[in-house]
């Protein structure tokens, strides 16, 4: 399974009622809140064996699927 699909699966586990596939900005559309971001970070770190630094926890890294995938890839995870 590729990174996009794994990230989408994690997002759907966190908020199954949300339509992440058709969203342009998860935060502006209120699909994720701060607690969801915390859960997402923990799940990404566990799934991909990475550590997301506090300085990386910015809105632009969690706004959409592409941004989250890019964040994961920036830790050496192959796309």
CATH superfamily: ACP-like
Rg value: 11 Å
Largest sheet: none
SSE-based structural type: mainly alpha
What is the chains' assembly state? single chain
Mean pLDDT: 96
Strand content: under 5%
Task: Specify the CATH class.
Answer: Mainly Alpha
CATH architecture: Orthogonal Bundle
Key structural traits:
Non-ribosomal Peptide Synthetase Peptidyl Carrier Protein, Chain A, 79 residues, mainly alpha, single chain
Briefly, what is this?
The protein is mostly helical and about 80 residues long. It has 3 helices and no strands. The longest helix has 15 residues.
Q: How would you describe what is shown here?
A:
- The structure is a single chain.
- This protein has 79 residues and is mainly α.
- It has one domain: Non-ribosomal Peptide Synthetase Peptidyl Carrier Protein, Chain A.
- It is built from three helices and no strands.
- The chain is globular.
- The termini are close together.
- The model has no long low-confidence stretch (mean pLDDT 96).
Question: SSE layout and pairings?
Answer:
Layout: H1 3-14, H2 34-48, H3 65-73
